Amino acid sequence: MRSYRRRRQVLPALLCALVLLVARPADAVGKATPGRNGTGSGGDLGLSAQVAQLYEDAAKATERYEAGRQRAEGQRARAQRIETLLDRERREIGGLREDLGRIARAQYRTSGGMPLTAQIVLATSPEQLMRGQHVFSQTNLAVGNAIEKSRRAETRLAKDEARAEAAWQNLEKRNAELAELKRGVEQKLEEARWQLQGQAEASVAAGSCPGAVRLDQKQKEFTSAWVPPVKSYELSAGFGSGGRRWTKRHTGQDFAVPIGTPVRAVGDGRVVKVACGGAFGMEVVVRHTDGYYTQYAHLASLAVDQGEQVDTGQWIGQSGTTGNSTGPHLHFEVRITAELGSGVDPVPWLTKRGVELG
After folding, report:
1. What distance in Å separates the CA atoms of residue 175 and residue 11, rounded to the nearest whole number?
2. With b meaning 16 or more CB within 10 Å and e meaning fewer, what string describes 123-162?
3. Which residue of 48, 192, 211, 258 has the fewest C-beta atoms within 10 A of its own C-beta?
4. What is the rounded CA–CA span in Å between residue 24 and residue 175?
């Protein structure tokens, strides 16, 4: 029974840990805080800023959802171990009941159930009578202890099963709340993205760039001098690839990202060109301190003005699908001059600067 007592101590601890993990209240969706690109504008946000904020909210909601899902996997494994312990409790209760049966049968065989009068009459000596009474008392004590032990085990089992079920219900409720939060933010974001794209297309059609929208960005100091132009992406058309969309060869590297994705300066530099119209739609060109130029094209909004100094990782706009574009993406070029036709392959250029694209 020593191992049984150890399991009694371990089981409640596991159940408590499970309940505490799943009972955490849902965190509120984070809000963008003022940063180096400008000051927050409160509730009266422009569409570009709304998309940027919703983009961050969606990313945070997704992170919380994935974290909840990963916790659920861990809790599922713990719950399975708890269920194994519950099964052991059930088997041990069955064993206790079998013990009661054996004690009762033994009591009958050793005359433990014989009436006291009969034992007095049949006893051949006072010593035999005392031994019979001692056995009778010990047997009754064993039966009473076994019954009480079985009753406590059944009560504990019922409580443990109820707590395990409540923990699972809390877990499912938490995951459902996170999934609903994620869906709601993503729906709002998708609607705002296409509104932003519509405004951008109108500006490109008119050939006139709107003023820079100073997007709120958390202050962040990058440990490296160079970063990718977008945080999360899939590489699509590469440098030098052919296709009907280009008169010759593709002059840059495309990053497939949703409309409204914040676009970052890959390194320190100065904005030498902001333009709207033509094949590149809304675009920004930055001259870096090492003399190279980078271009960011097909944008849906601008966060910088021409002549402005930018830091590594600073948001300079939002991705879109303006100009000669068949879908949302960032067209990124590295050039020797500010003009088209002087491009080099961006992937090895970034690799040499410590930026590995995946």
Report:
1. 25
2. eeeeeeeeebeeebeebeebbeebeebbeebeeebeebbe
3. 211
4. 11
The confidence band for 141, taking pLDDT boundaries of 50, 70 and 90, is low
Min mean pLDDT across 24-38, 191-205, 337-351 is at 24-38
Q: Report the half-sphere exposure of 326 (CA within 13 A, side-chain side).
A: 7
> Residue with structure tokens 């031994």?
131
Q: Which residues contact 69 (CB under 8 A, 6 or more apart)?
A: 175
Rounded to an integer, the average pLDDT of 66-87 is: 72
pLDDT score, position 244: 58
Amino acid identity at 25 = P
Distances (CA, A) of 26 to 20, 23, 80, 172, 178: 13, 9, 25, 13, 8
The model carries a pTM of: 0.60
Between the CA of residue 117 and those of 107, 114, 135, 141, 235, what are the distances in Å?
17, 8, 16, 21, 97
Average pLDDT estimate for 237-246: 71
- Report yes or no: 227 and 220 within 8 Å, Cβ to Cβ: no
| Lookup: tokens for 93 | 């209760």
Tens digits of residue pLDDT in 249-270: 888 999 999 999 999 999 999 9
Phi-psi label, residue 248: left if phi above 0, alpha if psi -120 to 50, beta otherwise: alpha
The torsion of the CA quartet 343, 213, 258, 329, rounded to 10 degrees, works out to: -20
